[in-house]
């Protein structure tokens, strides 16, 4: 890569533990400043993207990612340009190479939601402006910055330079997917343990396990990854229970097969009790939620922080766009 190549955010794996910590801290700081004060945008953000356009190429639906990134860009005075799959030639009728060159010649950044991760990696390879992954089949970094902000709010941010999350335990019950992979990578970096229960045939692929193990090697105080087929085993001693849909976008034709394979994996209060979660356990889900993976009683219950987690997507997007677009990848 040339010394002038922009820095991209394609996965939490692209961040050092200190950088991930800073992105979460900055998100917290911006949330606090904007929500608790007069509502004014801090001067470091105000007009930071004035006169600039950010292309948002989305080949799949989105509520939270679209609204939070458009909102973040608007907060900084920039113009988000949403380009859905029927609007532009994203890998259809035109190569990703050509699209990357054209988009980056006219914009300050590209926020891209794609199917295969190679699509966003290709865009990044050829783009002359920063590319931010807004979800691929492998990673969802903006979600994970918001998730660690949410966890840090429940387990208050320590005053030291770390987030003070070391030793917490996350239990992921359900499908091994894009959200899990970046969450596990982030957990390794922040010293958070994560135990993952998936049904047979739906485990973390070997290559991804290697990526997660590598993330652990980047941290002076790494978290541990534990895998099991038994939800109760994963839940034992967990502070936070997390899941996501069993049928990700693009897997719709496998719906019947998946619903059958994941029987017994629905998060309920009864399962949390049987598994021996900590008394203070909380529940997280990136949304959109489907009824199978979590009972209404947990999802809408007092332990659930899912709507706070959704709101935190805005603060995470502000933090990430500030770092990668305004500050050109300098995370401080
Ligand atoms: N969590 C999340 O990324 O939601 P959307 O698909 O609605 O953007
Ligand atoms: N795993 C889900 C996440 C959506 C935000 C999907 O890829 O559809």
UniProtKB/TrEMBL annotation:
Enzyme superclass (EC): transferase
Assembly and oligomerization: Homotrimer.
The reaction(s) this protein catalyses: carbamoyl phosphate + L-ornithine = L-citrulline + phosphate + H(+)
Lineage: Eukaryota, Fungi, Dikarya, Ascomycota, Pezizomycotina
One of the GO BP terms on file: citrulline biosynthetic process
Family, similarity comment: Belongs to the aspartate/ornithine carbamoyltransferase superfamily. OTCase family.
Domain Aspartate/ornithine carbamoyltransferase carbamoyl-P binding, first and last residues per copy: 7-153
Species for this entry: Ophiobolus disseminans
Protein name, per record: Ornithine carbamoyltransferase, mitochondrial
Entries under PROSITE patterns matching the protein: CARBAMOYLTRANSFERASE
